[in-house]
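#random but structural
TW: two for the price of one
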Amino acid sequence: MTVSYKGANGEETATFTVHGNCGMCKTRIEKAAMGVKGVKKATWDAEKQQIEVEYNTKKTKLITIHEAIAAVGHDTDLVRAKDEVYDNLHGCCKYERQ
């Protein structure tokens, strides 16, 4: 996980691992991250299994973004998705879990 500060106003960029496989995963992961108040941008790269998020630390914490993504079925490097949520993912979205 990489975190870099952008400015004194609380803006930060973080890159971390999110497991997934396809375009449906990309949409689901990015939508979950963008649903967190304070997230300004979220871009997931399937090949690298990484998401880059820009967010405001005055409005949210990085762990909250991890939790939101795990809540829709995708493991991050800090939060594991609940088994029942993962089990309900479409077949092509089921990645190999650690």
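TW: number two ↓
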Amino acid sequence: MAEASSQTRQLATQKNAVRLNKPVLLGIFGANSAPRAMIRYPGGRIDTVATGDKTRLGQVVAIDEDALHIARNGRTDVLRLPQQGQIASTLRPRSRPSAATNAV
């Protein structure tokens, strides 16, 4: 297994880097044609999801290189990866996935 980059090591060891009382997008991985995402829920449960999966947050409609698009109650929300030096963000409303996504 390859060793993690210095940036990855730094992000992985930050104290209080994510808000544990909100859903957090931990990572996106897999092939471009079939990406998967890892979500951590407030209770500590972690799920791995793909486009089309139903989650506690809604149905996954797309996975970008840095975001998860979730449809719920007639709208689409976005859960983004935390950036260096930023506390993890919460779901943000968005009208629809961009053309660059792999929407169903």
